[in-house]
Amino acid sequence: xxxxxxxxxxxxxxxxxxxxxxxxxxxxxxxxxxxxxxxxxxxxxxxxxxxxxxxxxxxxxxxxxxxxxxxxxxxxxxxxxxxxxxxxxxxxxxxxxxxxxxxxxxxxxxxxxxxxxxxxxxxxxxxxxxxxxxxxxxxxxxxxxxxxxxxxxxxxxxxxxxxxxxxxxxxxxxxxxxxxxxxxxxxxxxxxxxxxxxxxxxxxxxxxxxxxxxxxxxxxxxxxxxxxxxxxxxxxxxxxxxxxxxxxxxxxxx
Length: 254
Prior knowledge:
This protein is mainly α. It folds into two domains: 1-30; 37-245, MetI-like fold (Orthogonal Bundle), CATH 1.10.3720.10. The chain is built from ten helices and no strands. The protein has helices at residues 3-29, 39-49, 52-85, 87-102, 105-116, 120-144, 148-156, 161-198, 204-213, 217-245. Helix 2 (39-49) packs across helix 10, helix 6 runs antiparallel to helix 8 (161-198) and helix 9 (204-213) packs antiparallel against helix 10.
């Protein structure tokens, strides 16, 4: 079997078998829908909910994820560059950044909502706080792992620190940066859900809370499956972007 075809067909077959076993087990053991709904019940619940499942709630979550992730990249890459370029800056800021990242985001999300309000801004802060750290660390790691001979060559030709960073360090750090981006995009999904749990009027996270409160577990499960699918698709899109930016490098295994 062709390698690419196998990479698609085998997971698809395993997924279909899982769905079939799940459906059969729920029917055979008469599991109540409020404990474990069957896949068919989940599909019916999402269908009955209507097109707003995608046009309103999924779109709202996707907007929060993409904007928050973009902000995390805009913060993480320059900050990682600064940490790698200046030892004094790294010693001053890195412990503070680790402390910030160590705080459970779900613990401070209500505080963020109180301080910044219930709008999109507070949700973006939550997403950014979760997803910027992997990008920052990966950027700094990549810039600190530049081959020594390339740095010596730059020093020999009289390149300035900025020229060395722009022409040697940053290009060498691109694979590391994309590794951080793949982690960061999944963190952005988690951040968006946490933010919608705390304060939102639309979104898949909001829908999970609303459906659970109404004991509509099939709809809640549908929203969870949609979130998982969204996370996987965004992860793969980052991997595709890496292939486009680095066409000569081996494609990352996802």
